[in-house]
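Sorry to interrupt, but I need a hand with the structure work. Could you add the entry underneath, on a fresh line?
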Amino acid sequence: MTQSRTLSAPQEAILEAGISHPDPAAYTMVNAIIVDGVPAKALRQAATDTAVRHDALHWILNLDDRYRISASAGLDPALVPVEETDLRSLDPADSIATVEAWMAAQRAAAYDLWGSGPRIRFALFHLPDTPSGPSTVCALTTHHLYTDEHALQLLWSEIVRRASTQPSSTPASPDLRYSRWAEASTSPAAATSARKAAEAVAQRCKAHETRPYPEYLDRPPAPDAYGQQTRVLGPVDTAEVSARLSVGPAAVYVAAVAQAVAEQTGHGCIVLHMPMSLRRTAAEASIVGCFVASALLPIRVEPTGDRLIQHCQQALDFASDHAHARLGLLSRFVGRPQISLAIEQPATARRLGAVTWSSFAAPNAGPKHPLSLQLSASATGPGRLRGSWTPATLTQRQVSDLLERTTDHLNRLIAKG
């Protein structure tokens, strides 16, 4: 028996963006971890038990005869599929390459939101044993409509706890908290707040006299397809400048990108789109679901150095406070998203008793905006700065120049003395 569910405001925005995006796989999510010290059978059971517990992972979409979209939960969660592949006879390089190829194929496949099949699928790849015991890659495929990056980490943590038989403080099954949050996010009061936030953001963007990023570039004929470039970063330690200016690391990253964009375009008033979480409480931080909205950061790149970093922190605070503004309303005033910046957490190894796990490199996604930047930095290890772009936006040379400028500005902003 199906039960009615209300799509949240972030889900409605993602669904709208996905329908209009030229890449049908733009919002397919593929993620994986390598787990050492847990038998594969226990990992398989933990994955299915975890998926069963979260109601938000089992919503199906419905379309009525008036083309109105609704959601319902009622799909048998016991049918969560888990495929297994034994790679223990391969050498380590070949086994990793096999997993990478599988993940790339899944990432490129369109996700069927309208079918009656499972909303989340798992795959286990058995690697050669390590001194800690069995080694397994546990991968999942889902859609951004059901989860975000933070929720993925919640899922992995719960799966590893269950598999290692560690005590868990997770609520009883099923977890309906996201359903309740979704209803609140689309209430009349929330709609009024979202409209007022959109008006405030539009006014701020208008004051910054922003225009679409590519308009300021002289470029040769557009490439035939989208492109990607990645630049490896050395350690990026923002601790000193963050403490001195009372800002977060993100303000330093945004300042570096803003300066690079301003230099390349010759225009000092830009808008960055950044994914931001609408989780506001400690309780919401433990809920699996999609809480991410695309927020606007209008930035005037007139000050430099410390003043620019502080200005970017103010822009981040404003964007966070108004992240619930609906982009559909904003597009009337500021147009469609042009350039986005996502700040990602670097992969780190984690331990729970004798069990260790770490992130497995996910396949690169195509751009969701004309120019998409992803920045991952660490004070102690390497990071990366990746740019991807759609046809008729940029060229390889222009993106390479932008990444180089961003790296140079980042190094200057964190330089001591």
Observations:
- The longest helix spans residues 188-207.
